[in-house]
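Hi Y.,

Following your request, here is the sequence exactly as I used it, all 209 residues.
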Amino acid sequence: MYRFNTVYGGLLLSLLGLSPSVLAADYTVRLQFEKRPPKTALLYVPGDLGEQSQAVVDQVDKSFTESLVVAAPGQAVVFKNSDEVDHNIFANDMKSGARFDVGLMPPGGEKNIPVDWKADSLVRIGCKIHPKMRTYIAAVDAAYSKVMEFSSATSDYSISLEGVPDAAAQLLLRIPKYDPVVIDLNDPSTWTATLTKKGKTRGSFVLER
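Below is the corresponding structure, written out as tokens. Let me know if you'd prefer a different format.
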């Protein structure tokens, strides 16, 4: 299942604060994993190319409603509890400096946490009460982004990227625990890349226009 963290069509143009003439490029990303794919990934265009939406992390049925959210450094993430039980969201990522504990949050609770840790990081978030719960926060400036969710039953994926800002110079792929993939949109020779995890090949990436 693939989801924009913005909305489609005219609403997408409005949220990004861009005119139709600026959003001109459409791409297709093809991913192939050699083994079991990860749970989630993020494709995004870095830089201030429009207004970035508020990051919200909610909880229902003892699960996070999003597999990954994008939050601009210096802003805040809104944590909500729409579940019928208490939760206790936390992060303890020494590498990025993301260390916080929302505390016990009853049903209907809400709290804002500032994104004051290292920019361009991908941080895992959990619940102290329900250890199987997991989501990620990408601390990046990216008005244009797309979150992907993968199935263990499928290794090949084709993802459409519609209306990529014409001024975009790079496209990045971030997968938890994988090495980042950085694509130069002005250099098609970089549009084929290897997916690696701790230096080992785990699949392939192809960008088409």
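The chain has two domains: 1-50+142-209, 53-140.

Thanks again,
Q.
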